[in-house]
Design brief:
The complex is a heterodimer of chains A (761) and B (221).
Chain A (H helix, E strand, L loop, with lengths): L18 H7 L4 H11 L5 H10 L2 H4 L4 H4 L9 E3 L6 E6 L2 E9 L1 H6 L1 H18 L3 E11 L5 H21 L3 E8 L8 E11 L14 E6 L9 H5 L10 H7 L8 H16 L5 E4 L4 H13 L2 E5 L12 H6 L5 E6 L4 H10 L4 E8 L3 E6 L2 E7 H5 L21 H4 L6 H9 L8 H4 L10 E3 L6 E4 L13 E7 L2 H6 L1 H18 L3 E10 L6 H21 L3 E7 L3 E2 L2 E2 L3 E10 L16 E6 L10 H6 L12 H16 L5 E4 L4 H13 L2 E4 L7 H6 L5 E6 L4 H11 L3 E8 L3 E4 L3 E4 H17 L2
Parallel strand pairs in A: 4-5, 9-12, 17-18, 24-27
Antiparallel strand pairs in A: 1-2, 2-3, 3-6, 4-6, 7-10, 7-11, 8-10, 9-11, 12-13, 14-15, 15-16, 16-21, 17-21, 19-20, 22-25, 22-26, 23-25, 24-26, 27-28
Helix pairs in contact in A: 7-8, 7-11, 8-11, 8-27, 11-14, 17-27, 20-21, 20-23, 23-26
Chain B lengths: L3 E6 L6 H10 L3 E6 L10 E4 L19 H11 L4 E4 L1 H8 L6 E3 L7 E9 L14 E8 L3 E3 L3 H6 L3 E5 L11 E5 L5 E4 L31
Parallel strand pairs in B: 1-2, 1-3, 3-4, 4-11
Antiparallel strand pairs in B: 5-8, 6-7, 6-9, 9-10, 10-11
The chains are: A alpha+beta (761), B alpha/beta (221).
């Protein structure tokens, strides 16, 4: 606070008391601190140290990942906005564009599952909103510990409740996602959230200042003490203590608290501001709040900004300047407005019941200046905060999984009762019916959800940019995928297959994969093998995205997913977005009609138990070398799926993934309430045919009259087609020479897996 | 002749666009009515849509009943105008005492979204074309849908129970009640979402039968 009797110059920020100690507490290294001193040319103030520490944190600055992320493909004619903005935007035709991005809220969700997950949803929704887009769908890839563990029960049920509580109340449908469990996530769950939004191609907004004199307007909730240090303290460090509540309790104040009602009003107010072209730039306030949004918008334009912190509406008047700057209070946006439009902006916000307060203005020069009580508390170059933070090329040592060299295809004994194993796989949460989770989400609001949770990919009929449903037949399909166990055996190959599977999921619906977003969940990057796994996974992602022509338009990196010294599996999660010219041609995953032929499209089945769900869940073994993916064959398969869907030649199509053909056939049968009779491919052990997870395969069903056309199209595309059998009335999946899976028994197991995860044993 | 149907938009409403879309599909001319206005602009029928109102942090519908437009809705209802409350709209109409009973937290204490079968028990302007006993498949999605009333039998005897869950009671509602009307029958509420069952692409068309008061009036000869 400035006082009249203060001896120091009120235009120069007062130096922090004990700046070295404060810098260390805030997570800055001594080199980073020295760099700040050099940039400021004096001892930094408390507010400045707060700003730099959050903005230079791993979470905000990508200082460890940046040099690797540059290798990812991010361009293409379909990309309207690539990495660097709040979300990627792709052109989907008819004058419409789609914004989409995935983010994580892993650490907060362990500390406080309901609020952690809820604010994760709110945060990514505001990223999409910032691009000018109306949020139209959410997907949630989740990773928890094994069912039955009391901590996991609390975390899993809380996360699902939090996602539902926020997503349902804000009126954005939750249409998909996926779940996996593994002991490595018991003390460090993963909560990733992908949001999709629609915007007119010429209505995209940018987080950039445009002209000197524009007014900075803070829109939304009051600023409070919640979430201070969320980015720096919580998301950029590991949990030291063991997987329990003690570590969590201490960090609970770092978790933000979400208010979906305020979020909903903010959406509607912002969309009206955009429609009436009242703002010249806008940025959401997530990590690092006011500090981040002002620094980024000023830096992007090469301008400065001056903000009077006395004008920021506070929940607690006693807040210090640095707390105001670094607060991560939710449901806030910073808009830049021409002075002659300010009254209109304030009127729109008032109509929606949203607080809007002018707090500063865009200035000439490059300084980011904050004042409090008439005195300058912060004066530093915006670019030095937003864009000139340190980058690190951290040391690497090869990531070697201790069992990756083994040969389970050769030495793992065949099962005595493969049907029993088949049943066991169906109640693993990875393969189980997700209904107990999906039922807690509103997947229908918006009247655009053609295929919601449970299919290969969610399919949405695009609403108009104003949210009106049913205005076009054009649609999008979105899927997420990630497989930590396979990536742990081989981060590069695993990552290639994750991209391929997410794209294949989209292609199974008949959509053409268009672009991708990724959330890279890894352990402690200061451990050289973790860094190596990260770098090689990035290479794998890049290769697959290049081959599939799905540039990565944005995403997020989450490091320090480690508790008590144990890192999670390398878990890159990929979301792929595809387009459908006509949603009435979308292909379901369920068998449709008795008598349809069942075929395997793509590679014929080869041995592939390494990293398979069967080897892990039934045999308790994670081992082997992954069967390599042929990306050219994958591209051919995915194109063929789109072509066949366009011609309406497929009754169903379902990706073969976790649990192999066994789980794929069972899911198509269970979802369609139909049976199947199939004959395994020759020259393969029965359990390999059932449980191999060799990539690039899809189980499709085809009306007998269409079979010749499908065969001809596959032959012309050079995609192998194998006849497996037919869809039957009998409620079983009968495999010649092996036995039959009774669908009533299978349904019971399939339904129980997810419920056990949420409710405990 | 098509009917003008007003859809009330409160702060935090979520399914108002869905209602507009569905009403247009059944042949109405729908329009939004703003919560802060005290008049209905001469519409022929009113829909209080689903979703949330004011975040529903206190109790679903508890704040919305005080909105200026609710006075006009009550007046319209008293004059016999057809009013339909869907999900949160049902909760609002109960809180406003335009419908009997109350809606409380689901017996599972969890939000639930799934398709359920409901049986038509009585007809009113909104179910005019349906025969009692008919079963419809319509989605529910709510956290506070457990209907409570001290005398469900009396309510049924008065012909005010118009919908019951056919076999799967998803929320613990008394006597499987999924929808009730006022004594006159012109004000109806239901937890299922008919506006989400009007398009074969989005899961069936059974909901159209529950929007009869919005369908075009028969042409006069």
């Amino acid at each position: 606070m400035a006082t009249s009797d203060r001896a120091v110059d009120p235009t120069v920020p007062e130096p922090a008391a004990e700046p070295d100690a404060l810098a260390t507490d805030l997570g800055l290294t001594s080199q980073e601190y020295q760099r700040i001193v050099a940039t400021c040319g004096r001892t930094p103030s408390t507010a400045e140290l707060g700003t730099y520490s959050v903005m230079w944190s791993e979470h905000c600055s990508y200082k460890t990942s940046k040099i690797h992320l540059r290798r990812l493909p991010s361009r293409g004619p379909q990309v309207l906005v690539g990495p660097g903005e709040n979300a990627g935007v792709v052109d989907v035709g008819d004058g419409l564009a789609v914004a989409f991005k995935i983010e994580s809220h892993n650490h907060p969700s362990f500390v406080e599952p309901i609020q952690g997950a809820a604010t994760g949803v709110g945060g990514i929704i505001r990223d999409i909103l910032t691009m000018g887009a109306r949020p139209i769908a959410l997907l949630d890839p989740l990773r928890f510990g094994e069912p039955g563990d009391p901590v996991t029960t609390r975390v899993a049920s809380g996360v699902v409740r939090g996602i539902g509580r926020y997503g349902n109340a804000i009126g954005v449908p939750t249409v998909g996602g996926e779940v996996d469990v593994d002991p490595c996530y018991a003390g460090n769950p993963l909560v990733n959230v992908l949001c999709v939004g629609v915007v007119a191609r010429d209505g995209i907004q940018y987080a950039k200042a445009e002209r000197v004199g524009d007014v900075a307007v803070l829109i939304g909730q009051r600023t409070g003490r919640d979430g201070i240090g969320g980015a720096s303290v919580l998301a950029s460090a590991t949990f030291d203590d063991n997987a329990d509540d003690e570590a969590g309790q201490a960090k609970r104040p770092n978790v933000q608290v979400g208010d979906p009602f305020a979020g909903k009003l903010l959406i509607e107010a912002c969309l009206e501001l955009y429609a009436r072209q009242l703002v010249s730039g806008i940025q959401d306030m997530g990590a690092a709040g006011i500090a981040c949004s002002t620094a980024e918008m000023a830096s992007a334009a090469g301008l400065g900004m001056r903000v009077d912190l006395d004008r920021v509406p506070l929940r607690e008047p006693s807040m210090e300047s640095w707390e105001i700057l670094c607060s991560e209070s939710q449901e806030r946006m910073l808009a830049l407005v021409q002075p002659d439009r300010l009254d209109d902006v304030l009127a729109v916000c008032r109509r929606w019941g949203v607080d809007a307060t002018p707090i500063g203005e865009v200035t000439d020069g490059d300084r980011l200046v904050f004042t409090r009580g008439g005195a300058v508390v912060h004066d530093a170059p915006a670019a030095s905060i937003a864009d000139e933070g340190p980058t690190y090329d951290r040391p690497r040592e090869p990531w070697v999984h201790p069992h990756a060299h083994e040969h389970p295809d050769a030495d793992e004994p065949a099962p005595v009762d493969p049907i029993a194993d088949w049943l066991a796989l169906l109640d693993h949460p990875r393969a189980a019916d997700p209904t107990p989770i999906a039922e807690q989400y509103d997947s229908a609001v918006g009247s655009s959800t053609i295929a919601g949770p449970g299919g290969d990919a969610a399919v949405l009929r695009l609403p108009g940019a104003d949210g009106t449903p049913g205005v076009t037949l054009r649609g999008v399909a979105v899927a997420t995928d990630g497989n930590g166990r396979r990536c742990s055996l081989d981060p590069a190959e695993g990552a290639r297959q994750v991209v391929a599977e997410a794209a294949r999921n989209v292609a199974c619906t008949g959509a053409r994969p268009l672009a991708a977003t990724n959330n890279l969940n890894f352990g402690d990057p200061t451990r050289p093998p973790v860094m190596d796994a990260f770098a090689t996974a990035v290479d794998g992602l890049g290769q697959a995205c290049e081959a599939l022509d799905t540039p990565i338009t944005g995403g997020n990196v989450s490091f320090y997913n480690a508790t008590g010294g144990t890192d999670i599996h390398p878990t890159p999660v990929v979301g792929v977005l595809g387009t459908l010219a006509d949603v009435t041609a979308a292909v379901p995953a369920a068998f449709q009609r008795v008598g349809d032929a069942i075929v395997l499209l793509g590679a014929s089945t080869r041995p592939g138990l390494a990293g398979s769900l069967w080897l892990w869940h039934v045999r308790g073994r994670l081992a082997g070398r992954l069967p390599a993916i042929d990306l050219a064959a994958e591209v051919a398969l995915q194109r063929l799926l789109g072509d066949l869907a366009d011609e309406r030649l497929l009754a169903s199509a379902h990706d073969v993934a976790d649990g192999g053909l066994a789980v794929a056939l069972a899911e198509s049968a269970l979802r369609g309430h139909r049976g199947a009779e199939v004959t395994p491919e020759p020259d393969l052990a029965a359990h390999q045919w059932l449980f191999s997870e060799a990539p690039t395969r899809v189980v499709a069903s085809v009306a007998p009259d269409d079979l010749a056309a499908v065969e001809a199209a596959a032959a012309a595309a050079g995609v192998p087609l194998t006849h497996l059998g037919a869809v039957t009335e009998a409620q079983q999946v009968r495999v010649a020479g092996v036995g039959a899976l009774d669908l009533a028994a299978a349904r019971q197991r399939w339904r129980s897996g997810t419920a056990r995860l949420l409710d405990g044993p | 002749m098509s009917r003008r149907v007003g859809v009330v938009q409160f702060p935090g409403s979520c399914d108002e666009r869905d209602a507009l879309h569905a009403l247009a599909l059944v042949g109405a001319e729908p329009e939004l009515l703003w919560h802060a206005e005290a008049e209905l602009r001469g519409v022929d029928a009113v829909v209080v849509p689903g979703g949330f109102t004011y975040g529903d942090y206190l109790r679903a519908g508890a704040l919305a009943r005080f909105a200026p437009i609710m006075g006009a809705v009550a007046q319209f209802a008293a004059e016999g105008g057809p009013v339909l409350g869907i999900c949160n709209g049902f909760q609002v109409l109960c809180e406003a005492r335009l419908l009997p009973g109350a809606l409380t937290e689901n017996v599972t204490l969890r939000f639930v979204h799934r398709a359920v079968d409901v049986r038509v028990e009585a007809t009113n302007p909104w179910s005019a074309g349906l025969v009692p006993g008919a079963t419809l498949t319509v989605p529910i999605k709510h956290g506070e849908g457990r209907y409570v009333h001290p005398d469900p039998q009396g309510l049924a005897d008065a012909g005010q129970v118009w919908l019951r869950y056919a076999d799967d009671n998803p929320n613990g509602s008394v006597a499987d009640i999924a929808g009730v009307t006022n004594a006159a029958g012109n004000v109806a509420g239901l937890m299922p979402h008919p506006e989400h069952a009007v398009d074969p692409l989005l899961g069936g068309t059974d909901g159209r039968g529950l929007l009869a008061a919005a369908a075009p009036a028969p042409a006069a000869h």
